[in-house]
Write a structure and sequence with these properties.
The complex is a heterodimer of chains A (246) and B (278). Chain A is of the alpha/beta class. Chain A is built from ten helices and nine strands. In chain A, a hairpin with a 2-residue loop joins strand 4 and strand 5. Chain B contains twelve helices and no strands. Chain B has helices at 18-33, 37-59, 61-64, 76-79, 82-106, 108-113, 119-138, 140-151, 157-187, 192-217, 227-239, 248-272. The model of chain B is unreliable at 7-11 (pLDDT under 50). Classes of the chains: A alpha/beta (246), B mainly alpha (278). Chain A binds chain B through residues 9-11, 13-14, 16, 18, 20-29, 37-38, 40-45, 48, 51-52, 55-56, 58-61, 85, 87, 89-90, 92, 97-98, 110, 113-114, 117-118, 121, 123, and chain B through 1-8, 10-11, 13, 15-18, 20-21, 24-25, 28, 32, 103, 106-112, 114-118, 276-278.
Chain lengths: 246, 278
């Protein structure tokens, strides 16, 4: 990792900024005191640590409250302090564990904006761990999906979410299973999933789809190249895995 | 909220080494303790009362200790001052019990161990935070008493300097024992009150029953389980005072072994703590 073996704990951690999910701040310290302290424990000298602490606190938006004790902070401010302490020594790699946990929609947007700015900065890389898949979809370029501790997918997000060009996704209002069955009877390769009905492209497929919809009284709300949300992709993967296991 | 990265450039200054990182934890730890009224009161009372009572004993030795020879063995008397035991126990309870337990409770241990330090560094820093505070009670009065006695002309400087050297060694032995045992107890729980109770239990829960049982059963070997009696046996031997019921070498071995075992177990305990959760 970053030119070092993962077994070399200290040199690796010099290059990592970790933002834990859970509350881990020292309640009787001030915001600026804690961030400075963490900078010094990372190896910054006292002057640099305090200067960078002020910089990163300004960046995360904890400015006037920086001299208050952390025990008095709201959840959103604590999340920002956790982000600031991860940034203070200016690491190459950031590991953010559920950074939007406990935040209201506005706080979540602010936090994601900050993470996005860090991720887009040259020389900085972000690993974001989250169960909130829309957050991941907003921030990440590459994803690794784990289920039950096993990797079930990995790759560039845009490629994973864009399915095969040879397939169509149809969002049907009505009985998906029946729709897919009818298409199969019409000689089309089709499959009903949580994210819609997927059909292999072939000449005349569009006409067959609309005929099927008319016959079943179903409403076609979307028809186009397979583009899934991460949530849809995840659900598909998990269902496929469960089917394989069964 | 401003959305712009800090303007400093990456790695404009190399990170300082391990010694600097440990010093940061120690200095910050001591600063935090000296902001707490409880720690200030214990330190002030501990140092003050121990020192004053030791000096009073020196000044009025003829009244309090008639027949006591005014040689090196005299300094066993201030070294065996019960105030040392009480205030060291109090200091360990008030300050030491929280050192690791609070980090476990607030999960700040995650923050420490996500930094470029090892478990051993963390423990060394915590020990180095507690040890100076305990040694202020266990060492300082014992060193100052012969110094004052020599200044007042009650003892020769040769005896006083020898007593000061022995006081440093004895004080460090006592400090090391209490530091390692306190950190062990603090690492075992998230509640500092439990650790504090454990320190009192080890001090008085062993010393008092050991004294009672050894007297009633006539078996002085039972006193070995009392850290205070072990310390007194070593102090008697060091200052050449008579009357010890214990073999000082065994007592020293017990104190050192307990210190080493407690430190090792604390290290293992910290290595086993799961710091990332959720």
């Amino acid at each position: 990792m970053l030119g070092h073996s993962i077994a070399e704990g200290v040199p690796v951690r010099e290059r990592i900024g970790y933002m834990p999910e859970h509350d881990c701040l020292i309640p009787d310290m001030t915001g600026v005191g804690l961030v400075t302290y963490m900078g010094r424990v990372s190896g910054l000298d006292a002057n640099t640590a305090i200067s960078r602490a002020h910089d990163v606190l300004q960046f995360v938006g904890v400015e006037e409250e920086r001299y208050r004790k952390i025990a008095e902070y709201s959840t959103g401010m604590k999340q920002k302090i956790k982000l600031a302490q991860a940034m203070v020594h200016d690491p190459q790699l950031y590991i953010f564990d559920e950074p939007t946990t406990g935040l209201d929609p506005r706080g979540r947007t602010e936090m994601l904006d900050l993470v996005r700015v860090i991720a887009s900065s040259p020389g900085r890389n972000v690993v974001l761990s989250s169960h909130l898949l829309p957050d991941v979809e907003t921030i990440c370029k590459y994803i690794v999906i784990l289920d039950g501790g096993h990797q079930i997918a990995a790759g560039e997000l845009s490629q994973l979410l864009t399915g095969s060009a040879d397939r169509l996704r149809i969002d049907v209002r009505g009985d998906r299973e029946a729709f897919a069955r009818r298409l199969k009877e019409a000689g089309l390769e089709s499959e009903a999933t949580a994210s819609g009905v997927h059909v292999a492209r072939k000449p005349g497929v569009e006409a067959a789809i609309f005929e099927t919809a008319k016959a079943l009284g179903a409403e076609v709300r979307y028809m186009g190249r397979e583009i899934r949300s991460l949530e849809e992709f995840f659900v598909e993967l998990v269902q496929r895995n469960e089917a394989v296991d069964a | 909220m401003s959305i712009s990265l800090p303007t400093y450039t990456r790695r404009e200054m190399p990170l300082l080494g391990r010694r600097h990182r440990l010093r940061a934890i120690i200095v910050t730890g001591l600063r935090r303790e000296f902001k707490r009224p409880a720690a200030i009161v214990v330190t002030a009372l501990g140092v003050g009362l121990t020192l004053v009572s030791s000096i009073v004993i020196v000044l009025f030795a003829g009244v309090f200790l008639p027949g006591q020879a005014l040689d090196l063995s005299f300094f066993f008397v201030p070294a065996s001052n019960g105030a040392i035991l009480f205030f060291v126990t109090l200091m360990a309870s008030v300050v030491g019990s929280a050192l690791i337990a609070d980090d476990l409770n607030s999960m700040a241990l995650t923050l420490y161990l996500s930094r470029p330090i090892t478990h051993a560094d963390y423990l060394i820093a915590k020990a180095a935070t507690l040890a100076p505070l305990i040694s202020m009670i266990a060492v300082l009065p014992l060193v100052l008493t012969p110094f004052v006695a020599a200044l007042l002309g009650l003892f020769s400087w040769t005896i006083a300097l020898e007593a000061m050297g022995l006081a440093v060694l004895l004080g460090f032995l006592f400090t090391a024992f209490y530091t390692s045992v306190t950190l062990l107890l603090s690492s075992l729980t998230r509640r500092k009150s439990y650790a504090a109770a454990g320190i009192f239990a080890i001090t008085f829960g062993l010393s008092i029953p050991a004294g009672i049982l050894s007297g009633s059963l006539g078996n002085s070997a039972l006193l070995y389980i009392s850290p205070w009696d072990d310390y007194l046996a070593v102090a008697r031997a060091a200052f050449g005072a008579s009357g010890s019921q214990l073999e000082w070498l065994w007592a020293l071995a017990i104190l050192l072994a307990a210190t080493i075992v407690a430190s090792f177990v604390t290290y293992l305990r910290m290595k086993a703590v799961e710091v990332v959760s959720g």
